[in-house]
Amino acid sequence: MSTKSKKDRILGVITLLLAAWITFLSFQLKATGYQGDPGPRMFPLIGAGVMALCGIVLLIAPGKKPGVFLTKAQWASAGKLFAVYILFALLLWLGGFLIAVPITLMIVTYMLSGLSAKHNSRKKRILIAVIFGIVGGALLYLAYVIGLKAPMPTGILLR
Amino acid sequence: MTVLNYFIDALQALCTFQGFLFVVIGTLAGVVLGAIPGLGSSTLMVILLPISYRMSPTMAMALFMSITIGGMSGGCIGSILLGIPGTSSSMVTVFDGYEFTKRGEPSKALSAAVFANFLGNVPSVILAIAVTRAVAAWAVRLGPWEYAALCFCAVLLVVGLSKGNMVKSMIGVGLAIFLASVGADPINASGRFLFFGRLEFLSGFNIISVMLGLFASKIILLEYARQSKVKEQKPVKVEGFKLPRKEIWKNKWLILRSWLFGAVIGFLPGLGGPVASVMAYSTEKMVAKDKSTWGHGEIGGVFSCEIANNAAIGGALIPLLALGIPGDAAGVQFIAALNIQGINVGPMFMREQAAIVYMIFAAALLSGIIVFLFETLGMKTFPALLKIPYHFLYSVVILLAFLGAYMSTGSFYGLIVALACCALGVAMDYFEIPSMPFLMAYILSPMLELNIRRGFNYSTRGGAEFFTRPFSCIFILVGILVLAYGFASPAIKRAIAARRTPKG
Question: Residue B233 gets which letter from DSSP?
């Protein structure tokens, strides 16, 4: 079995494609017209050049095979929490601060309480999550909306 | 106004109820979050960034400085009591610190670490006060050529001197340069890379949203996925603080050397506490008469890394305040916090914003004293700090991070950027792309581009001016040499090892 990292080769390909895309986009930028100015495309082209060079190096000489980053189960857990992050953004857009914050707090607290050996009972975890969601949500509302007077979204459905 | 006037003004502001409260709360919150493995005080600073625009710039800086000092000191608590470092700066403290806990003497290691924190931090801040003014006076004479070369050198130093794969660090730099290019052109403000024709991209990717995604939300996502908090800690009994007089006297030269290591490494961009503590520990172990005790509960091991990482704070303040070059991740957050207030950090910062500069120094000294008092008087409470329920803390941090991202732009754009950066952060971790070179390049890119282009515009000789001006040329050469050394050093080490190994 090869001891070279397949991951590095994939990164090399991604980096090269990204560099090509940045180069394509950069050449569509128009020059400023100021005398001596290298123009707006110079800097992103430097970034693309650095990436292209590194991509080639990774393709030619990939590193050793790394250890497992996350197992399949761990990827699934990460995916679940990321889905909650997206859910929060959607709830904030649809229902605003008052709906999104307590619901997300409840879900995240319930999910994370599974990490604690003290809270094994499902019922207890739900109860703790609901109470914390309501109390935490109220405290965050007091802090942000009333204390800081931060303009928070009210939600397109509740307008 | 003289330096003393500014300093007295800053101290007066900190002696008001509000000022003192900010420093005390910031310091204590920093200690608590610094002690908790995985989270760290930088997460607290990132989630406070969007709120800081409501504070006065001086008070915001006092708060951030106190969190930094508290966080750096608190990092050793997790290292010594759990064997899990609270922060990356206290990683090496585990080697000897945790050995003391295993043999039932946690107070001995904690007392040494607490005193080392104070010894490292306060003198380094005094050094920063003494040196920053002189560096800033020199910095105002720099033109765009020197300033661009300095930014270039800083980015290459981070890549060249940091651990990990250099090629991947450079990929991070390239990516950061591209992402920083999105938005208004720094010379004529025309739009660059406005994807799907959306005008939101004109403001670029807000550094706060980027950091909230790359740090706070990604850290919790990976902590949850790896379930690293499932293991409950064993109960540890900690006695009160005992000044380790004999050990201090016995290790006086080690203390001095470690402090110098910390201050000098802190000065170099992007290295900060983690590298300072590793370098100090490995050097002291190398020069120790009896190496066999190191790693098995040697008090010098605790002293060396805790003094070095705290001394790095003062060292890092010098380039940050005199040149606008962040020395570590905390420095990046300071620049972001000042940008929120509409203040640009650069060579003129010390001259134009002296009140803020001296507030940072005064807050650093005051919080150094507060943290020492808290840790000496409250040492018995340390085990309780590590028992804070993670599910409450983490869920609040996630919410604060995303609300902060929304607040940073006042629209969903900031939130979407934070979500995208969280995914980017996971991808970077997956491909082992270090985040520090990325972050350093991202924060310095606007300054770098602006000064490169100004350099071309102001010059009659095009790019040659960058190499004909002495300081500019020196900075460029140093950057290239450090990068070349970084690439060549594994091969050099292999060649030396091959020579030493007897043939046959």
Answer: P
Mean pLDDT, chain B, rounded, equals 85
Could you tell me which residues come within 8 angstroms of residue B101 by beta carbon, excluding any fewer than 6 positions away? Answer: B80, B81, B83, B109, B236
Look at residue B6 and tell me whether its pLDDT is greater than 90. Answer: no
pLDDT tens-digit map of B293-331: 888 888 998 999 899 989 989 888 898 888 888 877 778
Write the burial class of residue B341 (CB in 10 Å: 0-12 exposed, 13-18 middle, 19+ buried): middle
Task: Please give the Cα distance from B25 to B303 (Å, whole number).
Answer: 27
Task: List the alpha helices (DSSP H) in B459-469.
Answer: 465-468
Distance of CA A97 to the CA centre of its chain: 20
Torsion of CA B490, B495, B501, B504, to 10 degrees: 130
* The two three-digit tokens of residue B245, written as one number: 């007089």
Q: Which of B171, B225, B230 sits opposite A51 (nearest CB)?
A: B171
Residue B216 belongs to a domain: yes
Return the DSSP state at B140: T
* Residue of B35, B62, B128, B148 lying closest to B363 (CA atoms): B62
> How far is the C-alpha of B13 from the C-alpha of B326, rounded, in Å?
26
Range of the domain at B211: 3-490
Domain boundaries, chain A: 6-60, 72-147
Q: Each residue of A2-40: pLDDT tens digit?
A: 667 889 999 999 999 999 999 999 999 887 777 778 889
Element (H, E) at B192: strand B191-192
The answer to whether the beta carbons of residues B325 and B270 sit under 8 Å apart is: no
Q: How many helices (H) and strands (E) does chain B have?
A: 23, 2
Residue B417 in any domain: the answer is yes
pTM of this prediction exceeds 0.90: no
Quick one: how far is CA B283 from the chain centroid?
A: 22
How many angstroms separate the CA atoms of A21 and A135, rounded?
48
Q: How is residue B23 written in tokens?
A: 């420093």
Establish if B234 touches chain A: CB-CB under 8 angstroms.
no
CB of A132 within 8 Å of a chain B CB? The answer is yes
Are B438 and B173 a contacting pair, CB within 8 Å?
yes
Could you tell me if B336 and B207 are in contact, meaning their C-beta atoms sit under 8 angstroms apart? yes
SS3 helix, strand, coil % of chain B, rounded to 5?
80, 0, 20
Contact A75 B187 (CB under 8 A): no
CA distance B185 to chain A (A): 6
Between CA B240 and CA B244, with CA B242 as vertex, the angle to 5 degrees is: 150
pLDDT single digits (tens) B407-460: 888 889 999 999 999 999 999 999 999 888 898 888 888 889 988 998 988 888
Residue B503's pLDDT is 56
Domain count, chain B: 1
Contact of A142 with chain B, judged by CB distance below 8 Å, is answered with: no
Task: Give the count of alpha carbons within 13 A of B286, CB side only.
Answer: 8
Query: What gap in Å lies between CA B273 and CA B313, rounded to an integer?
Result: 7
